[in-house]
Specification:
By secondary structure, this protein is mainly beta. The chain has no helices and eleven strands. The chain has strands spanning 2-7, 10-13, 18-26, 30-39, 46-51, 57-59, 67-72, 77-82, 91-100, 108-111, 115-120. Strands 2, 4, 5, 6, 9, 10 and 11 form a seven-stranded mixed sheet that branches. A four-stranded antiparallel sheet has the order 1-3-8-7, with no helix packed on it. Strand 4 (30-39) and strand 5 (46-51) form a beta hairpin. The chain is elongated and about 50 Å long. The termini are far apart. The mean pLDDT is 96.
Length: 121
């Protein structure tokens, strides 16, 4: 079993900051990329930011310069620091990890349960 547990969502005023955390636990051999996605009501889930095991990062254009993704490989944890938040950032944020459970199984994606981020104007 593998679990991804997110924390750090909440309600914040426009211009404020939040830090999301996500820890993967369970039977894990290795983790490749980890990332954050979000889904607003009536919209498709979209990538916010991703980071490889080596630290290479990728950001959606809409959050570049406002968000920073980082990870602690020793703790199987990924973080998303979000600054200068806007009402359009309101969404459920999901943690994603591409990981291998054993040397035989292929790497596959796992998802957290999601954490709500609401930005008021």
């Amino acid at each position: 079993q593998v679990q991804l547990v997110e924390s750090g969502g909440g309600l914040v005023q426009a211009g404020g900051s939040l830090r999301l955390s996500c820890t993967a636990s369970g039977s894990i051999l290795s983790i490749n990329a980890m990332g954050w996605y979000r889904q607003a009501p009536g919209k498709q889930r979209e990538l916010v930011a991703a980071i490889t095991s080596g630290g290479d990062t990728n950001y959606a254009d809409s959050v570049k310069g406002r968000c920073t993704i980082s990870r602690d490989n020793g703790k199987n944890t990924v973080y998303l620091q979000m600054n200068s938040l806007k009402p359009e950032d309101t969404a459920v944020y999901y943690c994603n990890a591409e990981l291998k459970r054993t040397s035989i199984l292929r790497a596959r994606d796992y998802w957290g349960q999601g954490t709500q981020v609401t930005v008021s104007s």
